[in-house]
Structure formats: C-alpha cells, structure tokens
C-alpha cells in the first residue's frame, strides 16, 4: 500500500525568497504540521494538495525564511557599537582604564555609557559607583 503525503497547508501566489543560489525565488510552498516540506513551482506543490489541505493565496506578498528561528538581541548589538563595551573588564581598574581611553574619543560634555560588565567576576564583588569614576 502506498501512502501519499499531503500538506496541511499550501501557500500559493507568493514571492518567496529562498536564498538558494540555484533557485532564488519560488511561488508556492507546502507545510506539513510545523515543517515546510517543499518550496517550488505550481506543478511541484499541487501534487501535495489533499482533501484536508488548507490553501492560502499570498496575493504576491513576500515570504522570507528563518527569521523566527533565530534568537538575537539586535538592539544590543547595535548599541554595542556606540556604548562602551565593558564585557572584557576583569576589575574596577580595567573599567577605569577603558573609560579613560573612551574619554579621549569624546567631546567635552558628551556622555559615556558603559554596559555589559560582570562585577561578579571581580574580586571586589560590587557595582561601579560614581565615586569610583
């Protein structure tokens, strides 16, 4: 007996970016429960449609893969470019040296915002205070 796999969901008429150099775009995709099982053209996908398949017309809208699979802190990544990254500091003295170096790159009155230090790795075992700075 041959069991034919049918998709639970088929999306048609889409602008799918595959990021595959061999086949950069597609118009159809098929889903079986939570997994995309096929991305392709009409002929490739229509054979996966069964009596219980939900069909959604994407009306030419764009579909991009994979962004929900990643866990990122993109805001913090960007802020690390403008804030003083203290993650590698192993002591209060190292923090003070890093702040001193950053001061040399700033204009008078410009704020220095430091982040990402971990005082629990220091022998001092306390936060940086205004008096320290």
From TrEMBL:
InterPro entries: Amidohydro_3, Metal-dep_hydrolase_composite, Metal_Hydrolase. GO terms for molecular function: hydrolase activity, acting on carbon-nitrogen (but not peptide) bonds. Residues 54-133 form the Amidohydrolase domain. This is Amidohydrolase 3 domain-containing protein. It comes from marine sediment metagenome.
